Amino acid sequence: MEGIRKAAEKAILEFLDLFPMPRGSLFVLGGSTSEVLGEKVGTKPSLEVAEAILEGLLPPLLERGIWVAVQGCEHLNRALVVEREAARTYSLEEVTVFPHPKAGGSLAMAAFLRLQDPVMVESLKAQAHGGMDIGGVLIGMHLRPVAVPLRLSLRRIGEAVLIAAKTRPKLVGGARAVYTREEMLRKLEEYRQKLP
Predict the structure, then answer these.
(1) What does the angle CA 53 – CA 54 – CA 60 come to, to the nearest 5 degrees?
(2) pLDDT at 26 over 80
(3) 72 — pLDDT class (breaks 50, 70, 90)
(4) DSSP 100
(5) C-alpha closest to that of 142 among 54, 95, 81, 96
(6) What was the pLDDT predicted at 104?
(7) Contact indicator for 56, 12 with CB cutoff of 8 Å
(8) What is the DSSP letter of 124?
(9) HEC string of 129-144?
(10) Which of 82, 55, 65 is nearest to 20 (CA)?
């Protein structure tokens, strides 16, 4: 379990180094403890694995004031565990259900037991700023458009494939639009040089 905790901690610290999420951001975590153990999703749930993952991932996120949403499995329509205050902040609809290893998953149950004031919500309404998928449980529906893959040096936690994503605002405009501050300042300088 210590190896899983260390891998989770390494993954989140690298994630936050590559994508420093501001305080109040929403991070979504999805994971299959069965996959971490090298088994098919849903066949070998493990609260011990879930605890090890959360012990590695949660402290760096919570220390930075980042809200964490932990996705349950398809048996709960991928409902998520979040702090009540995060649900209020992001106008998320609370639902009545309690996750357990065979419906919702070990990771969601462990998160529910660990958070201070947890509630279950049906959806994040595509508002998560970034997230991690441990074992291919499909978190994409919870991410804001536009999701961008983050390539971490760690490709697995246990036996489970690790996929990370950040988001960025949509690019709008046409051929004359600029997308960086530097480019905007360069255009401003060009404009000033043309003035009489």
Answers:
(1) 110
(2) yes
(3) confident
(4) B
(5) 81
(6) 78
(7) yes
(8) -
(9) CEEEEECCCCCHHHEC
(10) 65
Band the pLDDT of 102: cuts 50, 70, 90. Answer: confident
CA dist., res. 15 & res. 29, Å (int): 12
Stated as kind and residue range, the H or E segment containing 82 is strand 80-83
pTM of the model: 0.90
CATH of 2-194, one of 3.40.50.10360, 3.90.550.10, 3.40.50.720, 3.30.2400.10: 3.40.50.10360
Domain locations in the chain?
A: 2-194
* pLDDT recorded at residue 15: 98
Neighbouring C-beta atoms of residue 55, cutoff 10 Å = 18
Integer Rg of the chain from CA: 19
CA distance 137 to 31: 6
